[in-house]
């Protein structure tokens, strides 16, 4: 099975990557969620209204992930048609980015932070648009603000986008990014005591180490699959033809 194919196992893997990347999400998005909540006028902070706004923020955020995945996959498709052998390079890049994600999640190496810097130029131009939507009191505002929030520089997202680039099929890449985004929801949406418990579990060194090892195993599986396919192609090219 091709690990860049979007059958159930890779979609499940994308969801798990989002869930296990929750420690990073707590750090980046937890403060944003709190700020957005407190920006709502006190008279409008009924639990039902707040829950609807928070869910809307995150649906907007996930929709941005899906759009980014589709656009990057479209670029991958163009590159595949324009350059011979680029598909293999893109798949190796995707596996390397997943390994960098794992190292970051486990706190073994923070090199992925350098990748985040690549998105700051775009973010400086998009972020002011969100300020004009504050304070958010309606669902359409929340969805719009969430869709802007989704473009915030994030090394984990960039790792997944590298996978989207290798997939090179916009609809499949969008599905994968959606699965990843929904994987982040439990941590980002958790509140009160549940949030503290989830946060403690996600941040625990053993959890982070397990998450990293699972992601590395998946990336190594991708590389092994590519190596085996390359070997078979070499054997096929060496085989004598029969007429």
TrEMBL record:
Keywords: Membrane, Transmembrane, Transmembrane helix
Transmembrane segments: 12-41, 85-106, 142-161, 173-194, 206-224
Positions of the Urease accessory protein UreH-like transmembrane domain: 13-221
Name this protein carries in UniProt: Copper resistance protein
Biological source species: Halomonas salipaludis
């Amino acid at each position: 099975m091709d690990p860049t194919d979007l059958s159930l196992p890779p979609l499940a893997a994308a969801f798990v990557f989002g869930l296990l990347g929750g420690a990073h999400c707590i750090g980046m998005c937890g403060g944003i969620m709190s700020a957005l909540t407190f920006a709502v006028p006190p008279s409008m902070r009924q639990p039902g209204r707040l829950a609807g706004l928070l869910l809307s923020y995150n649906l907007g955020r996930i929709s941005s992930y899906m759009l980014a995945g589709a656009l990057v996959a479209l670029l991958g498709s163009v590159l595949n048609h324009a350059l011979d052998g680029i598909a293999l390079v893109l798949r190796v890049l995707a596996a390397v980015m997943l390994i960098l994600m794992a190292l970051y999640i486990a706190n073994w190496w923070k090199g992925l932070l350098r990748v985040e810097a690549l998105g700051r130029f775009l973010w400086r131009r998009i972020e002011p648009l969100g300020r004009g939507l504050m304070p958010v009191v309606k669902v359409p505002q929340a969805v719009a603000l969430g869709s802007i929030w989704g473009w915030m520089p994030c090394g984990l997202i960039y790792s997944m986008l590298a996978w989207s680039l290798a997939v090179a099929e916009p609809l499949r890449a969008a599905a994968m990014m959606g699965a990843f985004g929904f994987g982040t929801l439990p941590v980002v949406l958790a509140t009160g005591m549940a949030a503290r418990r989830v946060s403690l579990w996600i941040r625990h060194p053993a959890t982070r180490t397990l998450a990293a090892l699972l992601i590395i195993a998946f990336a190594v599986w991708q590389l092994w699959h590519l190596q085996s396919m390359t070997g078979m192609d070499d054997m096929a090219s060496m085989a004598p033809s029969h007429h």
